[in-house]
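Working notes for the structural subgroup meeting. M.R. asked for a predicted model of this chain before we commit to crystallization trials. I am recording the input and output together here so anyone reviewing the notebook later can reproduce the run.

Input as submitted:
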Amino acid sequence: MNKKVRFQWGAFLLFLFYGGLFFLLLGRFIYIQTTGIVNGEVLEQRAEEKYNRSQILEAHRGTIQDRNGNVLAEDTLSYKIFAVLSESATVNAHDPRHVIDVQQTAEKLSAYIDMSAEDIATRLQEGIDNERYQVEFGAAGRNLSHQVMQKIRSQNIPGIQFDKDLKRHYPNGSFASHLIGFAIKEETEEKKERLIGKMGLERIYDKVMTGTPGMLEYQSDRRGFLLPSSDKLITEPKNGADIYLTNDRTIQNFLEEAVTDVQEQYEPEKVTALVVKADSGEILAMTQRPTFDPNTREGLTTNWLNESVENTIEPGSTMKIFTLAAAIEEGKWDPNAWYKSGSYRLLDRTIYDHNVVGWGSITYLEGFQRSSNVAMAYLLERLGDDVFIDYIKAFGFGEKTGIELPNEAAGIISDRYPINRLTTAYGQGTTVTPLQLIQGMTAIANEGTMYQPFIIDKVVDPNTGENLLDHEPVSKPSPISAATANHVKEILASTVTSETGTAQKFKLDSYTSAGKTGTAQIPDTNGQYLWGRQLFLYSFLGMAPVEDPELIVYVAVHKPKIEPTEVGSDPTSYIYKYVTENALKYLNITPMDFTERQQVEVGDYTNRPVADVQSELQALGLEVITLGAEGNITSQYPHRDTKVVTGNKIFLRGSGAVTVPDMSGWSSREVQVMEQLSGIPMERTGSGFVVSQSVTAGTIADGSVPIVVKLSSPEEAYTSEPIKMEGESEPIEDE
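Returned structure, recorded in token form:
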């Protein structure tokens, strides 16, 4: 009986013990369930840290594009290579995920990246010795193209892995490099890498073009894979703004080609060149030598200055344009009056014409055509030097133009003493920028209206399509009248056409031209002027066509190595003629022989029978391209009230099937019109004029297969303006 009681007591104690444990655990569970805290840690937070994953979604830096949407700078996908060294990365011995053989890995990699096998092996071995999980290969292992990555991956090298990366790409190479600049990846204060603009537009608009990264958040299992029931939370990245320039890639290419030719032939110290739209101030092309490739920075030395904007020069005789304009405006110009050329004395100083002895007694007109310094001196007497300086300032010299580029130089007008004002009249002593010369020349080209040069057309937010900036031409107070401007233009044209003109080499084959040459002495480090045929700055400031100037071009060549049989205008005239001729043809500017051909004013032909209009236009001497010969005309190009020259094409869109025309010799612009009016997809290769087409002329096109046309010759490419067809409410957009 006593034994039984003892047994029950023991069972009771066991019940109490295990019961207490149960209630203790139950209480613990209830506490954890209600508070979510274990050992001071919040379980939910710990689970999120363990199973929640996040991934940064890179935002693209904004592009830089020309006026036609051609990309000049953009982000492009690249790859970064690294080597996994830790054995813990390998789960299956038959599928190694870490570097197995250091020497073999180094030898294979050295064939694809810019690093020797010995250096690669050293880096791998040091990583292994220091028990690092992985190592990278510095600059040699970054910015790898997709093709190189694929070649390395095909080698199946254990432990070699890749990360995707973005790098800045400049598809045109050394193209307006000092204008566009470059951006490279750098580590920020937050220890994150991002593209940072270091020069040119890339630096100026760095904040505007830098986007905001997004985020991808999701739940995963312990191996990092997305759980099937997990929701992904995506915060979309915001890409940076796109910068659209007034620059025209085709005209820029013309300029780059010509300047490169001069650089190779004459080996000048520097070359600076600008092409500007005369009636607006839009910069169509800008370049300089030496230059560099922004993709590699090869060629970038100590000169990071944009020579057209940030550096000043003595303009030489190009300044005589504005001295002449001031004299004409003040009524002090008499082209038929005579003066004694050769030399002119002011107090204790004597100035000379460039040939020292002069040409005897000549008229002021001949003196200007010959670029006589003495003519400017006598003209200054008539004008008054104080009045002259006021005009020079009114043309914008001595102050910044206001272009949207940094560090613009203002130049210095040398006017302290009478001799300074005299030398300024023919371009010595006073300093200017090429941009200021261009700005002043717009007043001559536009009947007295002076335009501020600009390079930014618009800034667009690609996320919303909103225009953050839309630049319109800015006119400035006119220093001269329309009559004066036209008179100056005529005299500048005579320097090209006259037998005594210094600008005869700047005569164009297909267009009229006007301008002024310049030969300036270059000051040395001691403040003295250098002297010698190969030590001058040779320049030209011109416009074309004279009747209605479309382009203003400035070229300056510093210290070219010209032969004894050559003159300083040889390199400058080569650039001017090559660029101006090709650019005007590209812009579809009618050559100067248009006066010998009849002009026809285009009417509104919509809703009229195709056959009737076709006969009518052919009788007027126009080449009619009919796209669908049935029914009435639904749209046309050119639109009504446009004046065209006989022999030009006019496109009519009717009903019915479209017969493919013979497009041989067509410009890219005309191919574009054909595509937009007919609805037939066209694929263009090359630039210039059509030399072949994939579908034979006369074939009925159904639009199911694109017509491929090949273009050749650099003289004409894509149109710079949207084309609007009569009968359509919206313009046809360029590609």
